[in-house]
Write a structure and sequence with these properties.
30% strand; alpha/beta
Length: 215
């Protein structure tokens, strides 16, 4: 039986680079996964793993996801009830929060309680959006970070970051004029504020870890 990864297309994702990086990770790890870019809830329900990318404003991304009939229900069934491994990337991670505070307050999926707030660097010389390579501090052991040491650099492009209600949901942080959440995890759910598909060797290692992760 072919193991499929549903890479969700809802009009708000950097799909091509994510698809290529996941496919390369599958080859390098010899997992045999097939990457399916899809907006079909039935394909999400039958997937062995699910990846939710996201580029743009929180409200626009949530609106795009919700506009696909049955998609949020399919995600809830697969991830929350069946325990399918899930990875959110950038805004795909932010949508896990209870609320996003970008251009007003907007409800998220609420899978990892918390809020998404604007970065406020202590140094006024630091520009927003934060763009470029930053060190990761791995604060909690997790399968996603097997072989990824603290101090490894990842690639970020963002103006907002998640503040979790429960500190134990934080897997890694980074610093840009103050600490912010770089990765979260709870059960079979994980997310990265950085772009693993643009983070070269570290990103491929993390994606490979996701493909073999057994929550």
């Amino acid at each position: 039986m072919i193991a499929r990864i549903a890479l969700i297309d809802y009009g708000s994702g950097n799909l091509r680079s994510a698809e290529k990086a996941l496919a390369r990770a599958a080859v390098e790890q010899k997992t045999g996964h097939v990457i399916s870019v899809t907006s079909d809830p039935a394909a999400v329900l039958s997937a062995e793993r699910i990846v939710l990318p996201g580029v743009g404003a929180f409200a626009d991304c949530m609106r795009g996801l919700s506009s696909i009939p049955g998609m949020v229900d399919a995600l809830s069934e697969a991830v929350l009830r069946r325990g399918v491994p899930f990875l959110g990337i950038w805004v795909g991670m932010q949508l896990l929060a209870s609320v996003g505070r970008e251009f007003g307050d907007h409800s998220g999926l609420g899978w990892i309680p918390g809020e998404v707030v604007r970065l406020k660097p202590s140094d006024p010389a630091l520009k927003i959006p934060h763009m470029g390579w930053n060190e990761l501090l791995v604060v909690r052991p997790h399968a996603l970070f097997d072989g990824v040491a603290s101090g490894t650099h990842a690639y970020f492009v963002h103006s907002y970051a998640m503040k979790t209600a429960d500190r134990s949901d934080v897997l890694a942080t980074s610093d840009y004029g103050g600490s912010f959440v770089a990765a979260v995890g709870r059960g079979n759910i994980a997310g990265t504020q950085f772009h693993p598909e643009k983070s070269q060797a570290m990103g491929l290692r993390l994606l490979g870890n996701f493909l073999t992760w057994q929550p």
